[in-house]
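Might you be able to consider the sequence and fold that I enclose below?
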Amino acid sequence: MAEGVSTDPLLSKVILGHLECSICCTRYTQPKNLDCSHSYCLKCLQELKKTQNPDTNKLKCPLCQKETILPLDGVTGLQSNYLLVALVEEVNKQEQLPQGEESKVMCQACDEENAAISRCLNCEHYLCLECQKAHQRLAAIKNHEIKTLAELQEVDETQTESKMNISRCDIHPMQELCLYCMTCEQLACKLCAVMRHKQPMHNLADLITAFDICQIKVSKDISKLHKSKVKMAGQLDALRKRLGCLFHETKNDISQHAEQKINKIRQEEVQLTQNAELVYKIKDKKMAELQFAEQTMKTIRTQGKMTDVNRLEILKIRQELLHKYEQDVNYEDHEELTYDLSFIALCKVENKVELGTLLHKEKWELMSKAIVDAACLSSYSNGDIVAVLGSQINILRQFGEDFNTISQLKCEDISKPITIAVNNEDHLIVLDDPNVKTLNKEFQLLHQFTPGKESGSKPTCLAVDENNLIAVGYKDKGEVSLHNPDGSLIRTLSAPGIDQYMIMSNQSIIIYAYNNRLDCIDLNGKKIIDYQTSYPILAVCCDKAGDIYLLVNYRIIQHLSAMGTLVEWINFGNDIHNGPIAFTQHGKLAVKQSGNIVSVFHRV
C-alpha cells in the first residue's frame, strides 16, 4: 500500500498538530509511549525524569499528570510509538522531494498508486475515484462519511483559524495558556506549571480564579488611591517617571559617594603604609645597630689587640647591616629598650566606612553655604554650580559636605546677564540683554543671536530643554519664541502674563506669571498646567523628574508634581531667600539668599 502524503499546507498542519513533541516542540525523535497514551521523545522523557523524583520508578506525564511505572531499564525500555516513527520517516522523505515537484495524496485502499480524491472519515483512508465508488456500493460501508480533499482542507483551515484565537505559550507553542502563577505574576501553560511553577513554592490558579483575585486587588488599590492625601490619581505615569529618575540619581550618588570613600581609604592606605614603613625602618635600624654592637664587642674581646684587618672586618659588618638605611631614619636614643621594639600592627577602626542609608521620604536640610553673589544660577553635568553676576562668573564645587568656589573670572563677552541655563553639552546659555549667547566650558563665545529683533520685543527670560532647544520669553508681548540651538526660530507661542522666570522640562515650558499664577504649556502652545498660589512667586526651578519647586514668602518652597498638584511645603527656617533657585545635576538645591550667600540644600 502506498502511503498518502498531503500537499504542502496540509503537510505543515499535520506536522504542527501531530508530529511534534509537546516538550521540545520539535519533530519526534525516538518517540516513546506512556501508559496514558501520550508520546514524547526519548531524550525529553529522560530529561523530564531528572526533574522529578529520581529515586522512584514512576514518571508523571506533563500533560495529564498520570503516572507511568517504568520498566527495569527505565525510560529506554518504554514501548516505542512505531506509528509516529513511520509518519516522521514518511514526512522526512516527502520533504526531500525535488523543489517544484508536487506531492500528491495517494489512495490507501488499493495498490494501484492512484491519486486520492477523497477520504473516508470512518475507515480513515484516502480513496481514489474507483475505490470511492466501491465504498458507496458496498452495503456494509455505504453509509460511511466521505469528504473530498477540498472539503477537508476547508474544515482544517476553519479549525486552524479558531485555534489562532487561543493564546499559546511562548515556550511551548502547542500548549494553551490556561493558568496564572500568582507568585511570579505570569501566565503559564500546563507544561510550564510542571517545569517552572511547581507547587507549593508557586501559587497557581486557573484564569477565572486569578481574574477574580485580580479584581479584588484592583478595587482595594483604587480605594487607597482615592483616599490618599496627595492627589495621585491620573498622574501615576508621571510619578513612576519621577521615581525612575530619582532611582538613577540615587544609584549615581551611591557610586560617586562610594568612589569618594574608596579614594579616601586608598589615600589613608598609602599614608598608613608609608608610616608603617618608616616605623619598621626606624625599629629595624635600631635593632641592627644593637646587633652590630654585640658582634663588635665579641670581636674585640676575642681578638684582644685590634689590627687593621680586624678594624676593616668590623666596618664591613657595619656597612652590611646599616648601609641600606637612610640617614634620617633614627630611633630616639633616650627611649627605653623594650620588647616593643620588635612590634608593629594595625589598630582597625570599625564602622567608619558606612556609605549612608536609603531615604524613603523627602526632607530637605541645609548642606552648605558659599560666599558668592549671584543674579543667575545653573548647574553643569558634573554637579558644579555656576553663579553669574554681571560679567563675573563663579564656579562652586562640592568637597565633602561643603561647596567651595574653585573659579572666579571676568567674562568679557557678557555684560548684562538677565538669566542663564546650561544645555546637555555643558554650554552656558546666557540672555545678555538683548542677545542670547552660547559659551563653552572655558567661557569663550561660540555664537549668539538676537531674539525678537524683527518684532521689536525685549526678551526678559530664557530656558533650555534636554534637546538643547532654547525658549525666550517677552513680558511686553506676552509671548515665548522657540529656537533651535543655532538661534533659528521654530515658532512663537502665546504666554500672557509671562515675567522674569521660565524653565523647560518634559517637552513643556513652565512660566511664572506676575499674578501669582504658574502656567505650563507644551511646545505647541497647548496649556497643560494652570496653578494659582496665594503668595508671590520669587523663583522657580525643576528637578530631573520634572517636579516643580516654587520659592514663595522668602523662606518657603512649594513642591508641585510634574502634573501641577501640590505635594508639600518645604520650610527653610528663618533665612531670607530671594532667588534665583536651581537644581544641580546631582539633586542638590541651590538657593540665593539676600546678600552674597548661596545656600545649598540636600535630602536627608
Observations:
- The longest strand covers residues 402-410.
- The CA atoms of residues 206 and 593 lie 63 Å apart.
